[in-house]
Amino acid sequence: MADLAIRPQDIDAELNPPLVTGGLTYASITEKISAITESKTPRAWYIAIGVTGALTAVLGLMIAYLVFTGIGVWGNNSPVGWAWDITNFVFWIGIGHAGTLISAILFLFRQRWRTSINRAAEAMTLFAVACAGIFPLIHVGRPWRAYWLFPIPNTDLNMWQNFRSPLLWDVFAVSTYATVSALFWYVGLIPDLATLRDRARNKIRQWIFGILSLGWRGSAHHWKHYEMAYLILAGLSTPLVLSVHTIVSFDFAVSVIPGWHTTIFPPYFVAGAIFSGFAMVITLMVIARQTLHLEDLITMKHLENMCKVILATGSIVGYAYAVEFFTAFFSGNPYERFTFINRAVGPYAWAVWTMFTCNVFAPQLFWFKKIRTSIPAMFAISIVVNIGMWFERFVIIVTSLHRDYLPASWGYFRPTAIDVLTFAGSIGLFLTLFLLFARFLPIIAVSEVKSVLHAQESGH
Amino acid sequence: MNAIFPKSADRVFRFAVAGLVVTAGAAAGLYAYFSHPKVLDTGYTPVQPVAYSHKLHAGNLGMDCRYCHFTVEKSAFAAIPPTEVCMNCHVRVKPQSPQLQRVRDSYARGEPIPWVKVHRLPDYVYFNHQAHVSAGVSCVSCHGRVDQMIEVKQVEPLSMAWCLDCHRNPAPKLRPVELVTKLDWQPDRDPADIGREIMRTKQIHPPLTCSGCHR
Amino acid sequence: MRTGKTYWRSLDELARTPEFEQWLHREFPENASEWTGKASRRNLLKLMAASFGLAGLVACRRPVERILPAAKGVEEYVPGNPMYYATAFSLGAAAYGLHVEAHDGRPTKIEGNPQHPASRGAAGSFAQASILGLYDPDRAKWVRKDGRRSSWEEFEKFAAGRFAGQGAGLRFLSGEIGSPSLEAVKKHALQRFPQARWVEFEPVSQDEPMAGAQLAFGQPVRAHYHFEKADVILALDCDFLGLDAPTLSYTREFARRRKIGTPQDRMNRLYVAEANYSLTGAAADHRLRLRASEVAALLAELAAELKVFGETLRVLPAASGARRKWLAAVARDLAAHKGRCLVLAGPRQPAVVHAWVHLINQLLGNAGATVTYTAATWTPQTQALKELASEMAAGQVSTLVILGGNPVYNAPADLDFASHIKKVECVIRHGLEEDETAALAHWTLPEAHYLETWGDARAWDGTCSIQQPLVAPIYEGRSAAEVVALLSGYPHRRAYDIVRNFWSALSEPQWRKALHDGVTPTPPSAELKVTADARRIQGLPLPPPATGVEINFQPDAGVWDGRFANNGWLQEAPDPMTKLTWDNAALLSPATARSLGVNTGDMISIQREGRELKIPAMILPGHADNSITLPLGYGRTRCGRVGRGVGHNVYPLRTSGAMSIAAGGKVSKAPGRYKFSLTQDHHSMEGRPIVREATLEEYRKHPHFAHEPHQELFSLYPEHSYDKGNQWGMVVDLNACIGCNACLLACQAENNIPIVGKKEVARGREMHWIRLDRYFSGPEEDPEVVYQPMACQQCENAPCENVCPVAATAHSPEGLNEMAYNRCIGTRYCANNCPYKVRRFNFLEWHKDIDQLQRMQFNPDVTVRMRGVMEKCNYCVQRIQEAKIKAKAEGRRPIRDGEILTACQQTCPAEAIVFGNINDPNSKVSQLRKQDRNYAVLAELNVKPRTTYLAKVRNPNPELV
After folding, report:
1. Does the residue C867 lie in any domain?
2. Domain ends where: C345, C375, C405?
3. Is this complex's ipTM strictly greater than 0.90?
4. What CATH number is given to the structural domain containing C564?
5. How many domains does chain C have?
6. Chain A nearest C-alpha distance from C616 (Å)
């Protein structure tokens, strides 16, 4: 009889597969993660950072050239005053959304599966925001005056910023977001830094991690404060996830330009941001998982969940596209209508259809479990989505600007080599930072994963 | 486990952080102070090619500013006088003085004297003497008591904020036009009252808009 | 579109060519190789020097600045206050009176002289831009002997020996002389050298009209048209609003007859028959596309319709249906307006045509009414030059003195001037440039710019002006009169003495008055009564329509005959019709292009009389079929850095036999593509109510046709009230605007607007604050054209102001949308959010590498913008402020209406632009805003533009609609 009995934990295992596999124990998890930062630096890492570092150098050169020569080195013109510069800005800001979402919102919703990916996702967020932050500063004609964007008291001019300008709202939104996510990330790191400190074999590591871990001793007292701080920060960043891209979308929604001036932008931008963010997380995690052999910690369940999120947000984005076209038609506004017809068949139709294919059609493949659970497939799709989301921003910005109200003022935008290299450089910077992170800091939140492990076992 | 840091580490750390904040704040404050036009620009007293004393001419001798700066009422610029103007008197007054050698040479050769500009505004600022003088703004408001300066020096910051102070509230700085060059003029009653009267009678509304000064 | 016309987008799209499809789906093209402009941007930055200005918005701390007052005071001169002088600018034989503004002794801005009959306060694009020539760093600066620097003393020594005898083998070659004093010196020279001869030659000459007058009246006469009196005008290949002098006064008179305040007002009606699409054609109520060589036939048909010779006329092959109908209507219209109509033919038309026109005008009773004649002396220029060339070929010319002009470049190709000139023992060249001709001269003498020497000039109507210098010659330049005086031992040597002596009849007060007014008391030429000989004219053989492809040579709106090639402003000013900058092109009709299998940008080869020319083609809708227009003046080989090698030289195809209209051209597609730089590449209005247009009849039926019903929007922000003090506004009458570039160039000169060069124009970075938007409507083959000057509209709810993060653009209480350059950090957000796209961004440092000389042109009242800042029209705020300060100084009086003129308004020959205080119900601008034609572009956006437009009304013949 007994052998016929079905044990509840089997069902449980069926319904939600374990988040940590391979029979890892507390000790072995710690060992596994910490080892990554302690073991001898692999050759592949040097090669990788060599490449990305070179790209970062290119970014530096391009910025220098830009500052010393002028915006003219880019393809921007009249009427297309913004092009790749702001496209890249919005693209990176979008990427920077998944991290906080995973850490904060999923944390508040008690989504346990977040634990193995939140650390890396948060790091990615920081690096993306760092890349994003560059563009608003260098896209101005006189970067040496960019500090005028900040409300610094100035008793010699008595000049204040124009608080009606969405661009100024951006300044606040982005800087707040950067600060909070940095804090959130660092607080999360503290216990693991302490672990590394304690495992450290040489003085230097001891000192560095010693200082970084701010004297963490893991006492109940510490944990109590820690949990509280973490909860508060999660609470703080949750609205930010929504606010940042909402405000970025105001840059366009508040204008009078057909194709920009639309109320759907805030939700549309946020969905798009999460969409692209998760895509980037998958891209990075898949690589990390394979190269660092984290199969037991970043399980198929994690990846599959993320694919589901992409499928959901991708569908929202597709819906938004459709609604945009519908409202343009339904508004009866000839300018709006023309803008969208022009998107579909105009000089930039190729970009628009790239966008549709990558963002709307590609993610739909995730309806199939086979694809959802196939590493190569999800990797490919995540890349495609990243491309698509870059094009979404390009389409919104450039196709709306190049043909607006007076046909006599219409033009066409062509990027220059500098445009391309600058964007490539920003990718380089992003990857460089991530590689450094993956090498020197615990890429997975050890303490949190342990909590999951604990939960799993208590399930017995 | 063995402690890496001594007990005191916590305190050191806290002090370090505090110190960092303080120094950063101090640095910012110092920069703000020393880069301010009040500090940076006022007091500028260049050496002039000819040791010309405004104190002597405008002060002791009581010459009117407009004797030399004769375009101040009809032009945006208060012209630096041609050497001719100096010579009007100095053919008779101190014709031999060695200090005036340069002036005499200039006049004889027809070569200008390279005076050094003291009150300098950026190229994108269009200040108009005619407009201010005809409204009743005295020389002293911007140039100070030149009649007491042996060497002319900049006494006001000439910063945008400084301009705006007066443009927002001109009354205290206004006086009857005929008195604009009376640098030592002391109003018998509250200058603001006089100013308000002048503003009423002349309908003076100083521009607060960009193009008032930037074109 | 109100008028229910169908608008198309661009030719390519209309024609759905595969190229367009491919363009639709093209990937990012590799950019660097996108534009094969001759000069790179960096070069151009250097080259454009001639119009760059004081850089430097950022001031570093305390550079020691010196003030250098004059040692001795200058009379009447108040440092900082501009001074104005009257002088005159001549183009060929037509002079225009000018007022030139000088700041601290340097000429900075040119305006028309209101007292001068030919300019009436307006200045055309050539006059406006001519000030650049004064500061052109590539001017001829020194006397040169065989290319080596020499001196006037050297030359005088040489001349004393050379110019001793009777002048055997001595020849003078000059442009057309419009200067009385120079004529006097010329007469003296010819007396001094009896055996010498003097040839006058202009590449764009009056030969044909004069010959026509000779045929009609037996003597050369100059015709003067009085458009104010003409109700019906038929212009045959005559661009009297554009290039056929004297355009300014004609434009003024014509425009006055187009301005209508109420539906009841009457306006004139203009018929145009032409090959190329000219400004006059754009202004026409009815335009007939016609090969230039068929105008004669058309005229004969018209004569038949008008029964000019009774029934006995040997009628030519009757016109085809449509053309017949057109002609019949025109004829009836003309006949119905005897004495109040006008027929004119352009100077490019052959003599016979002019003879017929004179006759027809006479029979229509126009002679003496709408057209008057004055006596003229004339020697056919092309013929004279031909003889000179043959003399040179025969070695009979020992000394050739070339005054101005550039014959080596622009003489008819068949004269082979360049090789014959080598046979001349001694060539002396006096000119502004070291050009193609100078290269072949033994002596080159620098000519003084008209702003730096004394002279005089006769206007089209005979009015004389004294050409008064504003500066002493910057280099060693001397006037032509001085040179001839020197060579011929004229009693007076200095320019001033020559002129003053010529006008010795004027007493000192009269002379001073003449200088002040800019016109001498001498009356214009007396009217001449002449009668055309009908019989003789009837007997004249009509030139047959051109065989093969007809080729039309005509002066270019930018560089004229090539003399302005080194003028950056004119090079960058878009051609009024094609919007082409930095180039010329072979203009042809869509049908012709199809038959040749070429598209815009394809190279074509034109062969004629064994000569070949390769030039890129450009499709111009409305151009006559089987005909090609070639603008002169490009492809200069020896010229300043700005103009060298720009465009294609078409003179090699132009022969003395066919100076204007050439027959028998063979045209074929040639290998290769060419990139044009256009400022507008989209030609349709997309059915949007941007330019609102109606016929006079429609207007009378619906006086409010211009008013678009649209839903009222409300601003989120509290609305400002603009009901106090001065509230500046502008009204542009689209009925008057003819689309010439005068306003654009005036604005460029007034506001220190930089030149960006061909490559940057191609990128869409031209800096002009005012655009002349040109839209086609109707069928591709034969569209109508409308113009719309588009500058900052000074919106009351300005979208640009809200979005600027640093408040660099803000609104003034007087309703100006102001731009504080020094606050701008260059986010370009304002430009993106401008529905009119009138903001201009300094993408690069356009003001690099310029020396003191070039800086001298700049208007000190306007900040010169550095790279990275936004700029735009501000209603010439510097002029507004100056006027306000002046008014305050003069006892705080209110500003009078018309006291402030914006640069564009002041120079507009059509008086299409009116600026003023809309708060004053009596101001001209308020009056116009009350008109029912008044409308605001994009009013539906609730941006409340301060610039409004008066809708266009055409006056078509009811018979033809």
Report:
1. yes
2. C375
3. yes
4. 2.40.40.20
5. 5
6. 22
Let me know whether C752 and C702 are in one domain.
Answer: yes
Residue C70 lies in a domain: no
Confidence check: pLDDT of C649 > 90: yes
Does the residue C683 lie in any domain?
A: no
CB B161 within 8 A of CB B149: no
Same domain, C799 and C817: yes
Share of chain C above pLDDT 70, in %: 92
| B99 CB burial (10 A radius; 0-12, 13-18, 19+) | exposed
The domain A41-151+160-458: what is its CATH number? Answer: 1.20.1630.10
Strand order in the sheet with C934-935: C913-917, C728-733, C947-950, C934-935
Q: Which residues of A touch B36 (CB under 8 A)?
A: 155-156
Buried/exposed A269-298: b ≥16 CB within 10 Å, e otherwise: bbbbbbbbbbbbbbbbbbebbeebebebbb
Amino acid at site B140: V
Parent domain of C338: 207-375
Question: Which chain B residue's Cα is nearest to A194?
Answer: B4
Helices (H), C702-809: 742-750, 758-762, 799-803
Chain C residue nearest residue B106, CA to CA: C71
Instruction: Establish if B117 touches chain C: CB-CB under 8 angstroms.
Output: yes
Nearest Cβ partner for A207 among B4, B36, B159: B4
Is the CB of C868 less than 8 angstroms away from the CB of A347? no
Q: Best mutation site among C675, C769, C804, C833 for testing chain A: the one with the most A CBs within 10 Å? A: C833
Whether residue C31 lies within 8 A of chain A, CB to CB, comes out as: yes
Q: C184 and C212 share a domain?
A: no
pLDDT exceeds cutoff 90 at B41: no
Handedness of CA C364, C367, C368, C370 (dihedral sign): positive
The residue of A171, A409, A416, A423 whose CB has the most chain C CBs within 10 angstroms, and thus the best one to mutate to test that interface, is A409
Q: Which of C486, C504, C522 is the last residue of a domain?
A: C504
Beta bridge partners of B174: B137
Residue A363 pLDDT more than 50? yes
C539: in domain = no
Q: Is the pLDDT of residue C32 over 50?
A: no
Q: β-strand C549-554 against C399-403: which pairing, if any?
A: unpaired
Inter-chain contact A141–C764, Cβ cutoff 8 Å?
A: no
Q: Which of residues 741-760 of C touch A (CB under 8 A)?
A: 760
| Subunit contact A214:B13, Cβ cutoff 8 A | yes
Q: Is A214 on the interface with B (CB under 8 A)?
A: yes
C857 shares its domain with C932: yes
Global pTM exceeds 0.80: yes
Task: For C681-735, write each residue's pLDDT tens digit.
Answer: 899 998 899 999 999 999 999 999 999 888 888 888 888 889 888 999 999 999 9
